[in-house]
Amino acid sequence: MTAPTRRPGRRPGQSSSRADILAAARVLFGDRGYDKASIRAIAGEAGVDPALVHHFFGTKDELFAAAMEFPIDPATILPLILTGPREEIGERLVRTFLRIWQDPRLSPQFVGIIRSATTSKTGATLLREFISSRLLARVAEALDVPRMNLNAAASQMVGVVMFRYVLELEPLASASEEELVALFAPTIQRYLGA
Fold it and tell me: Which of 148, 173, 150, 175 is nearest to 163 (CA)?
């Protein structure tokens, strides 16, 4: 007996197709980066026809933007960084950053964003807009720190992430949180001028 062939379009019954496509896109964009993750591969991973991906999301760029929507709202993490003595802000920033990246629910999506930022203009734009508009602008306003200093702090933390979580370069990849805080917090503190 042959298996029934899958018909293009929507699945019968209650549909989770959109969520399945987003989940598959996050996995493939994270594993392969933007350029190597095709609509066909994402559809295959989600168990849907590629036409359904286009139906829900239009272009690959639009799918990427939806899939790589940042999994955290800066409004929830900024108080963790900004609340407390100013002379400890470098330490709080490094700790908060590391804890977010170590969260197994968030890490794959963040790794996908970083990988895609290195391989596609769309990925780079999404990361830049998030860091500049949604994060740095708010920190600059709260701390009254020059934007150049904030960019320097952000570049330091993105570099840590790239080497620790994407490239998994040792000994950085297996260093403890305490080791990384001791190493990077003083530099971040200097950038933030406190």
Answer: 173
Mean pLDDT of 148-159: 88
Mean pLDDT across the chain: 82
Higher-confidence residue of 81 and 140: namely 81
Residue 41 tokens, joined: 């591969």
Q: How far apart are CA 99 and CA 82, in angstroms?
A: 16
Cβ atoms of 81 and 96 closer than 8 Å: yes
Check: CB of residue 89 under 8 Å from CB of residue 192: yes
Domains in the chain: boundaries: 17-67, 74-191
**Cα–Cα dist 112/114, whole Å:** 6
Helix then strand count (H, E) for the chain reads 11, 0
pLDDT in tens, 6-41: 444 444 544 688 989 988 988 887 777 777 889 999
In terms of CATH architecture, what is 17-67?
Orthogonal Bundle (1.10)
Residue 156 contacts residue 184 (beta carbons within 8 Å): yes
CATH class of 74-191: mainly alpha
Enclosing H/E stretch for 90: helix 89-102
Q: What confidence score (pLDDT) does residue 15 get?
A: 63
Question: How far apart are the C-alpha atoms of 137 and 27, rounded to whole Å?
Answer: 30
Q: Which residues of 25-40 are buried (b: 16+ CB within 10 A; e: fewer)?
A: bbbbbbebbbeebebe
